[in-house]
Amino acid sequence: MRSYSDLFRTREFTPLFLTSALQTAASTLGGLALGTLVYRATDSPLLSAVSMFGPQLAQVVGATTLLSGADRLPPRATMTGIACVFAVGTAAMAVPGLPMGGVFALILLLGLVQSLGGGVRWGLLNDILSQDGYLLGRSVFNMTTGLLQIGGYATGGVLVTALSPRTTLLIASALYLAAAGAAGLGLTRRAPRASGRPSIAQTWRTNALLWSSPPRRTTYLLLWVPNGLVVGCESLYVSYAPDRAGELFACAALGMFAGDLTTGRLLPPALRRRLGIPFLLLLATPYLFFALRPAVPVAAACAALASVGFGASLIQQERLMSLTPQELSGHALGLHSAGMLTMQGVSAALAGTLAQLGAPGVAMTLMATASLLATLTLAGAGAAAGRRPSGGMAGTYGSATAAGTGGMAAGSPPRPVRDPGRRARQE
Question: What is the pLDDT of residue 382?
């Protein structure tokens, strides 16, 4: 696939795209409304950050219990059901007088459900598109997310001020219901990608298989850790600028849109593969200046510039798919999504704690420093693996990382890994 029009001519791409877009709009409005509601009630940067990114903390539980369902449940019914659960849960958080304990219990429950949703959605996208179309298709989803977040945070800021956080939560609930309708009516009924019943034991076996490959393991860490720590910086926007947080979120989303457009559509493959590590460094560097407490316009510009670096995720996902058998694509992408969101939730809690003890700007700088150190450490580990004489998978990955490719040797086509656990995948 060479153009965006090719994508939308592909059967099922449009309804999947619409379902995802409605869910993104709902989560954007709902997240800002919930973070504002909690901050007004508690005056706590920690609780505000965790309320916005708390569902991610439950991802680790889902990744170790539910994730085998990503390839073993019918995609249409699963996506429809997940959107309905979010509609009900978001509406419940808008109930007046609901104690904070009840709010956070709902947040964790929704996070547990969400851990399955990422694997189902991205596995279905991988099925719908040809092998060379996944990165282009995923870039469209990411760019749409950026645009919806720009508009959603701006709109959410207006709605929260003009109406109330609770009313904004109800609007988000209605958007989740619309997403359920788009999935149920637009997607085609498909058989599960893999046979067998979902189970905790199967989840653990497949997780162990995916994690056993050194190239995949390093790719997962590059997908999870650096960007998770930077999301910890973003989780402090509300406490950094309580009345103008929507502007910061919108500018960060604009930067993410620019990065995904550049990575998915404009960069030639050979150059794109060399930019994985540089993009991750860009992702963190602008936040080093937040300790100086820049004014909101300058802070917004820094956030936009930093978020261009989120384009690294597309590069790493392309690498991950080249290393993963088709029948495990949903589980592999679900593990990526669950691990990434878990790290984001942990980072939000850590950033909130640091801001509680000091100041939001200082906490952002500390989180950005940790992200830079993580990126350099992983790049160095990959380079060291490339110098080993084994000539195996670790060497292939390491040499690519040493060149800053984000895991793929420049100019070489993706090659699937021959896993020793082939028989286990067919159970």
Answer: 63
